[in-house]
Amino acid sequence: MITFLPIGLLCWGAYTALWVVRAALRRWRLSWRRMIAHYAFFLYVLGFIDAALFPIPLHGVPSLPEIDATPWATLEHAFSLRTGMCKHFARSFAFALPLGAALPVLYTSMRRFSLVLVLSFFTASAIQIAGLLISARVGVPYRLFEVDDILFTCMGAACGFALWRFVRLGRSTFATLKWTADVEREEQELWNLDSKAKLP
Fold this sequence. Notes:
With 200 residues, this protein is mainly α.
């Protein structure tokens, strides 16, 4: 059985070395807050790949990979706790939620819903195709290619993007209200000073 731990450690080491070299070239004049955010996102991507594709079995009953290409074919079982599909699709949804929220935060070019949705679709499709190819290579169908999994991943990313928009709108509204209150307070102070100046 192949686990993700050695591959993840190798990727983590290479990414850390890349950031160290980049920081050294810039004489450590980096936005540490932004660097930590990118680092956390990279760890999230590693966890996403680990949960989606690993562990990979090397022994089992040889058979052809299974493909379920009917959209929403398992939707009627998705909310049933007895079938186990609820946990499966909830995991796909939950793992994609940070993706939709993190992309617009880290990259200004990704602050469009269509781009986030397209990227999440291709990411989920790549994961499903990778599982299918690995199953064909090892001869054991350890992952089922499901269109519904792709759809739930896109839904999770869409909800994450909506959450980011909601938080951004809330912060913008709060800033506007605060600015309005400051303007009104300054006008009131000016009026009080003007009134005192007019007193005999």
